[in-house]
Amino acid sequence: MARDPNSRLDTGEDPKREFELVESLSNLLYRSEPAVGGLNSQLLDLHRSFGDRVYAELIYLLSHLRFEPGEAKFHWQRIAEHRDFLLDKLGAPVDVRVALLSYFVDVSKKLKNPKIMELKLYEETQASLYRDELTGLCNFRYFRDHLTREIERAARYNLPLSLVMMDVDDFKSYNDEKGHEAGNEALATVASLLVESLRTIDVPARYGGEEFAIILPTTSKADAHGVAERARSLIEEHEFSKTDEQSRTTLTVSMGIATFPADASNANEIIRHADSAMYVAKTLGKNRVHLYGHSRRSYFRIHATLQGEFREMSAEHGQFTAVNLCERGLLLHVQRRLSEGTLLDLDLRLPNSRPKVAISGRVVRVEELKFGGFEAAIRIVEIGTQDHRRLAEFIRSVESNSEPGDRKAPAEEPLESAVAK
What we know:
By secondary structure, the chain is an alpha+beta fold. The protein has helices at residues 15-31, 38-50, 53-63, 69-90, 96-107, 119-130, 140-157, 171-178, 180-197, 221-237, 267-283, 385-401, and strands at 161-168, 203-208, 211-217, 253-260, 289-291, 302-312, 316-325, 329-334, 343-348, 357-368, 374-383.
C-alpha cells in the first residue's frame, strides 16, 4: 500500500547514501531519454549500488507516491509490462513516464486526479516555498520540518545530530552605518560563506533577521565544533565592504552548539539549548563558538557500577567493573593492563535483566589507578540491535530518574559478575 507522500523512506541507510541516490536519480531524469530505453540501462547501474530503493525513490520523484522498496520494484516491473502493452496498441515508442501515469491511473488506480507539470518547474516551485528570498538558504518553515525529521532518523539509527545556532555580531550597528541595502548584501554573503564551509548533506537556514541555524546530520559535538570554527573563521576573514583604500569592514559571528541525544530529546529542546549556548558565546566576548553544557560528548553518559566479563583475542578472560557508560562507549576498571587498540568481547550484566548485553569494543585509552588495577576506556564497535535497545533503555531510565551529577545505576538488587563461557 502506498505510504503518506510526505513521509521519508525508512531505509536504515546512511543519510549521505540516501542523498546520493536521490541526486543521482534527479540527474538521470534530466539527462536520459526514457522514450528510447535510456533510463532502464542506467537504472541497472544504480540498482547495483542501492538495491530496490532505486525504484522507490524513482516512483516518488515521478508520481509523489511512496512505496516500500519491494513493492516499488513490483510496480516498476508492471509499469514496464504496461509500456510494452501500450507500444503494441499504439505502434510507436512510449515514454516510460507516460506509461507510469497510465499505469497508476488506469491499472493500479493509485492516482485518481493527477496533476501534470514539468519536473524541473515542480522542484523550483517547491523550493520557493522553503527558500529564504534574500539569502537563498532554507527558511524557518523548512528548517523546523527538516530538523524534526532528522532527529527522528537519528533516534531510529542511533546517530548523533548537532545543531548550530549563529548570530551576526553587532549587526544593527553595521546596518545603521552602512544602510539596509549593504546590510542585506552582508547577510547574503554570510549565507554564501556558510554554504562554502559545509558538506552537501548539512542544512544551513536563515532562522530570522541576522540569525542562522545549521543542521549537521550524523555529526558528533566535537566534529560540529570543528565545522562551526571553520565557518566562523571564514566569515571573520572576509572583507564585507570597503569605503576607502584604508578602510576594511569585517563582521563576526557568535555560535552555540547542542547535540542530540546528549543535550536534547526533541527539536524544541535542541533549538533552545543551542540558542542558549549562542548567547553564552555573546556574553563571553562574541566571535566565538560555545558548546552547550561545556561538554564535547554526543551521548548521555551515566555513572554506574556494573559487572561483567571480557575476552581478549577470544582467548584470555578477565572480570571488569563498568563505572561509566553511554551508547558509544564504557569506562572499565580491570585488574591487568590492556593494550590500546585491543579488540574485546564484553558481557555486561544490567540490573533487573537476566540476559547479558554482548558488546564488541576497542580499547582506546588505559591508565593505572592509584589504588591498584587499571582504568580502560572502550569504544563500542559492534552491538546487536536487541542488546543496543536494552542498553539505551537502561541509560535513559537512569538519566531520566536522576538529578544531573548524580546519575548512578539503580541498586534494587546486587550486581553479579558474568559467568565465564
